[in-house]
From TrEMBL:
PANTHER family: ABC TRANSPORTER PERMEASE PROTEIN, INNER MEMBRANE ABC TRANSPORTER PERMEASE PROTEIN YDCU-RELATED-RELATED. This is ABC transporter permease. InterPro entries: MetI-like (IPR000515), MetI-like_sf (IPR035906). It comes from Vogesella indigofera. The keyword Transmembrane helix applies. It is a multi-pass membrane protein. Residues 202-408 form the ABC transmembrane type-1 domain. Belongs to the binding-protein-dependent transport system permease family. CysTW subfamily. It is found in: Cell membrane. Keywords: Cell membrane, Membrane, Transmembrane, Transmembrane helix, Transport. The chain crosses the membrane at residues 34-57, 206-228, 240-260, 290-310, 341-365, 385-408.
Length: 420
């Protein structure tokens, strides 16, 4: 009986404390220490990665100008039924808001935003603001004074634009990035053909990225295979040549390619000296030059992941397949190649994503028809100071990147299951 009671009693440590409680406390302390070690890195990633992305996404739909600088107009026009012209109260609110905007020197912010929807709205707002405050006599209509000031105030389309933008968010920038426009009913429709630009730019970006990735894989795979099957000493020596471009600035490499590829450059001079060509080839400032330079810059990003995977494949697999009567090429295709797909796919994905965001190489080595989406992100950021359009284009690039990564993860997961 006493032995049974002893076996059922809870285990205790030397100090008499329950062993289960003590182990739970030790486990909790280890978890807290692990969290404390990871916390600085998590905070760093939050501040430098997640917060900027969240700000980018917010900025792509942010629309503060009208609701901030025309607050009374925004409040009054919310009850407008969008038929005919707004009420007298809306015109009176606009007069008060423009008076305040004139005093606070914020007219340019309002006019710049509204001019994106209707060309000429900038001059309308600025001209009207200069005539503020209005002197309204008893029994006189503010609406009539606005229309007498400029007949465009009698156009309902201008008031539709103000009503549409009298809220803190807008799909305008995202629609514009996809060559869409918002109808009066609030639904998107494709812009007229002569106004479309960004769909072709996104198509060009994807097309060029696809070809650069394909060329990089076709060149990088045999190089990685060769390095993986060389003796370690020779392989390590040649790997330095693969890593050497990382120690040189991208700008320096692009400038070097300009020197090499221009009509009087070293490549054309050598080909003409050998009698291969009779006149210089146009290799720079076109798509050919962009492809050559970007493949040179991005090739290591295919070689390194492929090499790391190939190096881990035992050579006995191929020898065993050949010894069992399989042709060397068939053994390579059925045994060796499927095991390298994950590394090659990772390198291809990395190259494709980097291509979509490349800016310097197409800007320096390409012509107008070689500029990719990143060029226009920089244009709207640095030249026109249109943060909304820059953020919208950047957000679409982010969505494309995440979509590619999701597809890659699914394909790699399916490949692992098939190999398993």
């Amino acid at each position: 009986m006493s032995e049974t009671m002893t076996m059922n009693a809870p285990l205790t440590a030397a100090d008499g404390e329950s062993l289960k409680v003590k182990l739970a406390r030790e486990r909790r302390n280890k978890q807290l220490k692990a969290i404390a070690l990871v916390a600085p890195l998590a905070l760093f990633l939050l501040l430098t990665f997640l917060v900027p992305i969240a700000m980018l996404l917010k900025r792509s739909v942010d629309n503060p100008e009208v609701i901030t600088y025309l607050p009374q107009t925004s409040a009054e026009i919310a009850s407008w039924d969008r038929r005919g012209l707004p009420s007298e109260a809306v015109f009176a609110a606009m007069a008060r808001d423009l008076t305040v905007a004139k005093e606070q020197k914020t007219v340019s912010e309002i006019s710049k935003r509204l001019n994106m929807d209707i060309s000429g709205f900038r001059s309308l707002i600025q001209r009207s603001a200069r005539k503020m405050p209005l002197e309204v006599a008893a029994g006189e209509s503010v609406r009539d004074q606005f229309i007498a000031m400029d007949e465009r105030w009698g156009d309902p389309d201008h008031w539709h634009v103000i009503a549409k933008n009298a809220k803190s968010w807008t799909p305008y920038y995202l629609y514009s990035s996809l060559d869409l426009r918002e109808t009066k009913a609030g639904t998107p429709e494709l812009a007229p053909e002569e106004e479309r630009a960004f769909l072709s730019i996104f198509g060009r970006t994807l097309w060029m990225s696809m070809w650069i990735t394909l060329i990089s894989v076709l060149l990088g795979y045999p190089i990685a295979y060769w390095l993986a099957n060389l003796p370690a000493r020779k392989s390590n020596l040649l790997m330095i040549l693969v890593l050497l471009p990382f120690w040189t600035s991208v700008l320096v490499r692009v400038a070097s390619w300009i020197v090499l590829l221009q009509q009087e450059g070293l490549i054309n001079s050598a080909l003409m000296g050998l009698g291969i060509i009779g006149e210089p080839l146009q290799l720079a400032f076109n798509r050919t030059g962009v492809y050559i330079a970007m493949v040179h810059i991005l090739l290591p990003f295919v070689i390194l992941p492929a090499y790391s995977v190939m190096k881990s494949i035992p050579p006995t697999y191929m020898r065993a397949a050949i010894s069992l009567g399989d042709h060397p090429f068939a053994a390579f295709w059925k045994i060796y190649f499927p095991q390298t797909v994950a590394g090659v796919a990772a390198g291809a994905l990395l190259v494709f994503i980097m291509c979509m965001g490349y800016y310097i190489t197409p800007a320096l080595l390409g012509g107008p028809q070689e500029q990719m989406v990143s060029y226009y992100v920089a244009f709207y950021t640095n030249v026109t100071i249109n943060w909304g359009m820059a953020a919208a284009l950047g957000s679409l690039l982010l969505v494309a990147t995440m979509t590619l990564y999701a597809v890659y993860s699914k394909l790699v997961g399916a490949n692992k299951l098939s190999l398993g």
